[in-house]
Every structure is written in structure tokens, then in C-alpha cells.
Amino acid sequence: MSKVKVGTVQMTCVKDKETNLQKAIEKVREAAAKGAQIVCLQELFTSLYFCDVEDYDNFDLAESIPGPSTNALSEVAKELGVVIIASLFEKRAQGLYHNTTAILDADGTYLGKYRKMHIPDDPAFYEKFYFTPGDLGYKVFQTKFAKIGVLICWDQWYPEASRITALMGAEIMFYPTAIGWATDQDEETNKDQYNSWQTIQRSHAVANGVPVVSVNRVGFEQDGAMKFWGGSFVTNGQGKLLYLASHDQEEVVVTELDLSESDYFRKHWPFLRDRRIDSYQPITKRFIDED
């Protein structure tokens, strides 16, 4: 299928999991009504972004994958004939948790999961307290409408992750995300941070010749100390912005992608052809020190 319509759901969340899940389902329905074939939800959409604190009670938010949320979304995917990309807090075993995205095909089939590989640990983003780094490697999923790659939030800063995912055949790269500004920052810092975030992801589209879809949450959380900056966007395979969301509103938008463009971009900017794979072994080192 050459052209694919992608739905992005940028929304606010509340404390209650079931409320968030039902809200997300309604947003998926809205996207499908607008023609979406693949719908991407934001990172950890069934809860507030709980990683702002280290609190053992927050582990109670986790669930198995497949599990209750994927079961509910699978029914919706089958009913509407849409692919759903769902980022969830996975309880793998007692005391073992991941930040995980599940992929549900348009017939409701659970295609599998991707576990977030890069785990941040910064003020108000204490993810290492909760999440074990992913151990499934990078993944692509053959859905009804396209072969998709999924990476999660902090993964988006690493060109190695996007390159590997593209080399595995991803036709679109999706980034469910939860990122925001501390409310005590000045406007110039806010602007610089957002621009860096957008630029690095657009560069993955350029370097690999595939569209990028980044979906962020929006609104104040942490008792108003953190404003999630929204700004969800979609690019084509040359990094051109096809859709850009606001910083402060919920939005459900459908964007059409022409996957056949990737062949054109890769022919005219043949980065894959000219890769010197024989010279890249040093990338596996943490840092290249003197011997």
C-alpha cells in the first residue's frame, strides 16, 4: 500500500487508569472516523507521567502485555479496522517492569511488543527507578497497512536506534513520547529544548528516508510543576513537516503519508548506498579513549 493515513492522538491524562483508557479509545474512534488506518497513542497514556517521583506505589499501575489494556484495544482495532500503537507500563514478572509499546493489527491481532531500550534518569524523569532496559532489541511489525518501527521517547535521541530500525525494513517510524518543560524555565530555554527535540527526530527521517511520527502528551502534571509540551508532528522521508500540533491543546489529526516517496528520496540522497559499514566498528565502544 503506497499511501497510508496515520492518526496521532495528543491528549491530557488524569490519575485514574480506566478514565484514560476510555478517553484514548474515544480518540482512536475519532481518528478512525477521520480516515486513520494506523493510530499512535502517546507514551504511558493510561496514567499520569508517574516517573516524576520515586514511589513504590506507582508499580501498581503496571499490567501484563498482552493484558487488560491490549485486550480492550484489540476489540476496538478489530471493530474499526485500524492498527493501534499503544504505549503501556508492563509488569513482566514480580519485581520486573518495562516501558513497552504493544502493536495491535487492524483485525485485532496482537502482533507483539517493543520494550524501550534507552532509559533516562533526570530530575522529574526518574525512569531507571521503574523500568528495566528493553531486551527484545529493535523491532519492526508488518501491519495490514505498512511495516512499522516503534521506538519510545528517550530512544528518539539516538541515531543508532533509528538506523537499525530502518535497516530492518521499517517504512514508518513511530515515537510515542512524554516530554515537557519545567515551569520555572525561561521561554528561550523552552524554545531551544523543543527545537532540539524536533530537529533530532526530523534528522532520523532525512538520514533513513522514511517518515517519522512523534506523538507527545500535553498539559500540566506534577501539581503544575511540569508542562508537557505537546508539539506532536509528522514528517515525510525528507524531514518535511506535514503536521505540527500545538503546545497546549488536545489534538486528533490524520495525516496521509506516501510511502513510495522513500524510494525517490533514497535514490537521490543515497545515504544507504554510501554507508561505510566496514568502518563503523568503533561505534560499539562506550567512548574512544587512547589505548
From TrEMBL:
InterPro entries: Aliph_Amidase/BUP, C-N_Hydrolase, C-N_Hydrolase_sf. Pfam families: CN_hydrolase. One of its GO terms (molecular function) is acyltransferase activity. Keywords: Acyltransferase, Hydrolase, Transferase. Gene3D superfamilies: Carbon-nitrogen hydrolase (3.60.110.10). The keyword Acyltransferase applies. CDD domains: CPA. It comes from the Bacteria. This is Apolipoprotein acyltransferase. The lineage of its organism: Bacteria, Pseudomonadati, Bacteroidota, Flavobacteriia, Flavobacteriales.
